[in-house]
Design brief:
alpha+beta; 48% helix
């Protein structure tokens, strides 16, 4: 009664509503049927789908590993969202009792975080004993340590001691293929901060504090 063209318009509108708002839409039904029939193959495809952030993280890690050797740093455990490394000055027995990081023995380390749209670079202590980290936290409230906003209370487990700020490089977590330019920018930004006098002073101060961390661990074992 309403004519062919208005009927097509209404049918399309109803289909749009179903696709947008209804769980039992035809598309959902078809998708479930396809998944049920090809579940194993689709699971494999989903597991290995393009992941730009993973590619970027791996590229940064590889570049950084090559670039920071000359600055006296070595890589430690990394993940998709976090790239971690330590100065050689921190490879002491006192910094080999860490339990705060998966697959890393270090208590205190440098960390690039890729969780936000812009990477951040920090010095972080993970699950350090309170008698030791309390003193270092107090020292970190003044130069040469830097913070993104002052905190009056020390965090319980993961303590940011030194913040080197955010990169101006935006992270794109959508699959785009080539991440080379972005990773190079992030690595260069990181290297510039590691070369800074304030960073070198922070490295030395924490290195000087690590024997006390070893003494604490020895005292608790005896």
């Amino acid at each position: 009664m309403i004519g062919a063209e208005p009927k097509v318009l209404l049918d399309n509108y109803i289909q749009l509503l179903e696709e947008k708002f209804m769980d039992q839409s035809k598309i959902a039904q078809v998708a479930r049927a396809i998944y049920k029939q090809h579940r194993q193959a689709l699971d494999v495809l989903f597991e290995h789908r393009p992941d730009n952030l993973q590619n970027l993280s791996e590229d940064i890690r590889k570049l950084l590993e090559q670039e920071i050797k000359e600055l006296g740093f070595v890589m430690t455990a990394c993940s998709k969202h976090y790239i971690r490394f330590v100065p050689k000055q921190w490879i002491q027995r006192g910094n080999l009792h860490g339990t705060g990081w998966a697959y890393s023995p270090h208590t205190v380390l440098f960390e690039i975080s890729l969780r936000a749209k812009k990477p951040t670079l920090s010095v972080i202590s993970g699950k350090a004993p309170s008698p030791w980290i309390d003193k270092l936290w107090e020292r970190a409230q003044s130069h040469p340590f830097q913070m993104l906003g002052k905190r009056t209370e020390r965090p319980r487990d993961w303590v940011m001691l030194h913040s080197l700020g955010k990169s101006n490089t935006l992270i794109n977590d959508e699959p785009t293929g080539d991440v080379g330019d972005i990773s190079t920018q992030i690595v260069n930004w990181c290297k510039n901060h590691l070369k800074a006098d304030s960073s070198r002073e922070v490295v030395t101060i924490i290195a000087d504090a690590l024997p006390a961390l070893e003494e604490y661990h020895n005292s608790t074992q005896s």
